[in-house]
Amino acid sequence: MSALNTRVSLLALACAVSSYSAMAEDSSLTNPSISAVLDGYYQTGDRPMAEREEGFGLGETELALSANIDEMFYGKVTAVIELEDGETELNLEEAFIQTLALPNGLSVRAGRFLSDIGYLNNQHKHTDSFTERPAVYRAFLGNHYFDDGIRLSYVAPTDLYWTMGVEAFGGDSLRAADEHGERDFDDVGVYTALTKIGGDIGIESSWQLGFSYLRNENGLAYAEEHEDEEETADEHAEHSHSASYTGENTYIADFVYKWAPNGNYKYQNLTLSGEYFRVTDIFGEEPGHVDEVDDMDDHEISDDYHEGWYLSSVYQFSPSWSAGLRYGQIDTFEIHEDHLDPQKLKETEFSLAWHSSHFSTVRLQYTHQTGTNFDGFEDDNIFTLQYVMSLGAHGAHQF
């Protein structure tokens, strides 16, 4: 009986190997890349509009699956597990297909994906050199903007790298506040246009410039009576992927410069980057609520704008150690009864990271924050100890 079982087992194994070999010969089938990213931290304070809270906590635990579907399409799914108000939530961050064989440098991506606007937005947060995105991202893009939509991209046949793209999204996370639940939002609310150009300087340096425009059909905030101060503070403290400040038009300029001796980034490299955001047409007068802002000058509503920027420098001075310095600030407005209250937030951040390998990072970060008119937050010095560990396939990072 044992001999019979052995023959049956060997037969099953032979069938399995034969079946696998048959699939492997089919060029339309590939082995998917599967990965997970673990993110944990301890932090000594809270930051405005940030995802990490004071104390021990988990950042985003990311699970990803990707593969070429066949010779024509590529697909990827990324799920994020995170804690909010003590409860575990599963969010789908990416679920898209992308063409692989369109002619003339064209490609199409459809589904849920990260918008390609700006420099940082199309990169997953675990690749960042700091524990949080800059304040300008947290304020205007809800940390990082991903959405359901479609993108058309074009890479020009030029000596310099030059790409252009247009996108259309639902835009739910970028909608302006609807305190009365009376607004009729557009189903396709966000349109973007972007271009990026870059190249090499010798063998040791490379650069890239980018310009992006985002049109938010649902971004206009109406000048209406706001909630009391305590509720407003809770609104800014709440963990959310939605933008805290919106407008109809957002303009973004970004740059990045990278250097490595002899072009070898493994042992030593320097990255300088920065972005500037300007959000215009942020307030309007809604029919039925105009009487609440009779005393506000028309130019106060139409001419003011949100803006923000950051500059970052990250130097990897050995294969195992890197240090980063970043400064950023945002200047925003909120309506309180018959006037606009200006707000300002400044952040200076220093990080020191130890990389045991390409798959693991332990980071210590110091943040000095100062703010004006951000209810519920005070000037503070915050320390964060973070680990980021990658399991499984780990693709190349964005430029």
From TrEMBL:
InterPro entries (alphabetical): Porin_dom_sf
Keywords: Signal
Transmembrane regions listed in the UniProt entry: none
Keyword Signal: yes
Signal peptide region: 1-24
Region of interest (Disordered), residue spans: 224-243
Protein name as annotated: Zinc-regulated TonB-dependent outer membrane receptor
Organism: Shewanella polaris
